[in-house]
Amino acid sequence: MKSISSPSLTRRDFLAASGAAASAGAGAFAFPGDLRAEDTPETAPIRGKAEHVISIWLGGGMGQIDTFDPKAKGDPQAKKAGAYYQSIETAVPGVRLCEHLPKLAPLMDRVTAVRTVHHDVIDEHAAATNRMHTGRPVTGTITYPSIGSLIAHERGAAAEGAPAYVLIGYPNVTRGPGFLGAEHGYLYLTDTSRGPAGLSRPEGVSEARQMRRVRFLTALRASAPPSDNPRLRSYDAAIQQSLSLSGPGFNRVFQLDEESGDLRNRYGGEFGQRCLLARRLVERGVRFIEVSHNLNFINGTGWDVHNQGILNQHELIRELDTAVSALIADLESKRLLDKTLITITTEFGRPPEFDGGGGRGHQGSAFSCVLAGGGLRHRGAWGETDELAKQIVAAPVGVPDFFATICAAAGVDYRKSLYDGDRPVPITDRGEPIAALFG
């Protein structure tokens, strides 16, 4: 059984998208970054209308064949390759999902599962995680910024008094600003029951004492000569931002008990509460929020389902289904869905074959990432894989292309170059967006 890219994928759409992908290399190399020829209406970068991005990260490797690109059912006991679960119909004719995504199924007309993402990292979680956050291989000569920092750098916060980038999960260099500097990094928290620890005064530090510290810092700055060191200026900007965010105005966004009990129940457990907090951060003016699904795994192993780790994978899929469907519906009810791009990404997919313990290994040759909302022209699915979701049949999407799609949707010029010192760095490694999702 083959996946269907979309019932609305016309021959014209496919040829247009294929032509854009085929010409990307020549165009990008002929006119890199700011040196390219003047844009015409036909060649101008695509610019979407999304004002915010909520990026949901599924650490460990979500299996596409068991979620967003289901195929004929296999048998781990008989070592017959195939899906672990049955599939169900969705709101988009011809597009099917795993049976454990029943709440997302009727919402797939607001969603596009990009089924043909690929890269060449297979058996290294850290390297693949870096690739799916920075869009590039690890290198010893440059520390690349994450997609969150890129968008924070280009767009800034969407409201005064809000940070541009918030991470709900563990801090990590792959999520960081790289050569862009600390002021384009993230504010982070790991527990939705309270706000970021760095924004709360330690016990015993009164407001008056805090103000004395601020006055002392101000005096020190005034007595020191101006510095041309970009690292010092970057950290100074980060300190100023943290001071401006430490008041009650911004911290109120973390008080989830202001939401109704019914709504909180619809989102589900801790992962769902993270998604609810992401919606509140959008309302407060945060530009980019990463929600990591990496704590309190209800199946015991997370998405890295080797051997018997696959036995309760369905519980994890159901948790994802509950939280993301609630997020889509909630944003839509507040007229924020078209302004907010939701992405679901993971470091790689899973092969159709079962390992010795009945689980699955790693696969980078073809896997699924998901886009929802953001004002895109959704079609349920994009791209086609073979009957085992192992090889790409049509419309491949490289990681730079997926990043370019996110950037375009968020109003960021995916063709420009940033600079590490005087070294130009193409913002998406010369990716081109999926043009058929725009317009």
Name some characteristics of this structure:
Alkaline Phosphatase, subunit A; nine-stranded mixed β-sheet; 30% helix; two-stranded antiparallel ribbon; disordered N terminus; alpha/beta; 439 residues
Describe this structure in words.
The chain is 30% helix and 14% strand. By secondary structure, the protein is of the alpha/beta class. The strands form four sheets. Strands 1, 4, 5, 6, 7, 8, 9, 10 and 13 form a nine-stranded mixed β-sheet that branches. β2 (87-89) and β3 form a beta hairpin. α8 runs parallel beside α9 (313-333). The two termini are 31 Å apart. The relative contact order is 0.23.
Shape: globular
The count of strands amounts to 15
Instruction: Please tell me the CATH architecture by its name.
Output: 3-Layer(aba) Sandwich
Q: Portion of residues in helices?
A: 25-40%
Total DSSP helices: 10
Structural class: alpha/beta
How many domain regions?
1
What portion of residues belong to β-strands? 5-15%
Largest sheet: 9 strands, mixed
CATH class: Alpha Beta
Order of helices and strands: HEEEEHHEEHHHHHEHEEEEEEHEE
Furnish the topology, listing elements before pairings.
Layout: H1 11-30, E1 52-57, E2 87-89, E3 96-98, E4 111-118, H2 125-134, H3 147-155, E5 165-168, E6 187-189, H4 207-223, H5 230-245, H6 248-251, H7 261-267, H8 270-284, E7 288-292, H9 313-333, E8 340-345, E9 367-373, E10 380-382, E11 384-385, E12 392-394, E13 397-398, H10 399-409, E14 417-420, E15 423-426
Helix pairs in contact: 8-9
